[in-house]
Specification:
Blueprint lengths: L2 E4 L16 E4 L8 H8 L4 E4 L7 H6 L5 E4 L9 H6 L3 E3 L6 H16 L2 H9 L20 E5 L3 H12 L3 E5 L5 H7 L2 E2 L2 H7 L2 E4 L13 H6 L5 E4 L8 H9 L5 E4 L10 H4 L4 E3 L8 H19 L10
Parallel strand pairs: 1-2, 1-3, 3-4, 4-5, 6-7, 6-9, 7-8, 9-10, 10-11, 11-12
The structure holds (2R)-2,3-dihydroxypropanoic acid.
């Protein structure tokens, strides 16, 4: 029987597809695995289900001599050295589609939270500051008629665009490829990054993290944004230079920011933690019962197919 390692103690039943088919070792709840310890665990395994926080780099792969498949429990797979896996003939899979709606819904929620200052208002009230209705108390912005720039018009970016269009926003997008379906469904126009930075009222990031997109949004790009624009990121943290973002906000530029992902998770730039116009959530884009259970099922299916020598449904390398 193939031996596999799972780097997280998933809730009861989520990995039931594996029962009786593979010999499973699961990281226990209170166990912290360093990269070296993870490599040690993978040494004699045929397969693994890993999380986006597990860094599977060359050093880990070098030691995992028997490994045939890494089933990543995420759609993004920037935590894995794909080239190295390819060189070694190790299959890598991900869990797309089932989390698209959940992540898009969180993105829309974050947009409203930041443009309508919902968390600030909640805090204001909890602090006992509400002394009566005032015409100019906690004013925000409306989504309707705003120009929203979608950076990355793939699966999640397109669904976000569709939801925002339905709510009355105008859509522009930045992507390497033209997305004709999106253009048809939302009257979106494809624009250059610079144009979007200079003109959008709200910018939402849905690009994968690659060498090209790392710090795509840095000091220069932030300085091009409109003074009251909003920046939302539910993709990957390192697409934004977090220190530059904190500095930009410190100068009073930008209407606000909503981030679900961070450059050095679980660490967060401490300046961002203290700012009123910054809404932060702990990487919960796909955190619905439906999406996370479905991701587990897909991760199991990908793993089992690869171990059987079949083409897994969601192979990325
Ligand atoms: C992913 O899948 O890549 C998300 O960031 C977590 O669901």
């Amino acid at each position: 029987m193939d031996k596999i390692f799972v780097t997280y103690p998933f809730p009861e039943g989520w990995l039931s597809l594996l029962e009786g088919k593979v010999k499973i070792e699961i990281k226990s709840e209170d166990e912290f695995l360093s990269r070296e310890e993870l490599a040690e665990k993978l040494k004699d395994k045929d397969g693994a289900i890993v999380l986006l926080g597990d860094i599977i780099d060359k050093g880990v792969l070098e030691k995992a001599r028997k490994l045939k498949v890494i089933s990543n429990y995420a759609v993004g797979y920037d935590n894995i050295d794909i080239e190295e896996a390819r060189k070694r003939g190790i299959i890598v899979t991900n869990t797309p589609d089932v989390l698209t709606n959940a992540t898009a819904e969180l993105t829309v929620s974050l947009i409203f939270a930041v443009i309508r200052r919902i968390l600030e208002s909640n805090e204001f009230l909890h602090q006992g500051n509400f002394t009566g209705w005032e015409p100019d108390l906690l004013l925000g912005y409306e989504l309707k008629d705003s120009l929203v720039g979608i950076l990355g018009a793939g699966r999640i970016g397109s669904v976000v665009a569709g939801k925002l269009y339905a709510l009355g926003a105008k859509i522009v997008y930045y992507d390497a490829s033209k997305n004709e379906d999106l253009e048809k469904e939302t009257k979106a126009e494809k624009e250059g990054l610079k144009w979007i930075l200079q003109n959008a009222d709200i910018i939402s990031i849905h690009l994968p993290l690659t060498q090209k997109t790392h710090h795509l949004i840095d000091e220069k790009e932030l300085s091009m944004m409109k003074d009251n624009a909003f920046l939302i990121n539910t993709g990957r943290g390192a697409i934004i230079n977090e220190a530059s973002l904190a500095e930009t906000l410190r100068t009073g530029k930008l209407g606000g920011v909503a981030l679900d992902v961070f450059e050095n998770e679980p660490g967060i730039n401490t300046h961002l933690l203290r700012m009123e116009n910054v809404v932060l959530t702990p990487h919960i884009g796909s955190a619905t019962y439906k999406a996370r259970k479905a991701m587990a099922e897909i991760a199991c299916r990908n793993l089992l197919a690869a171990l059987k020598g079949e083409e897994p449904p969601n192979r990325v390398a």
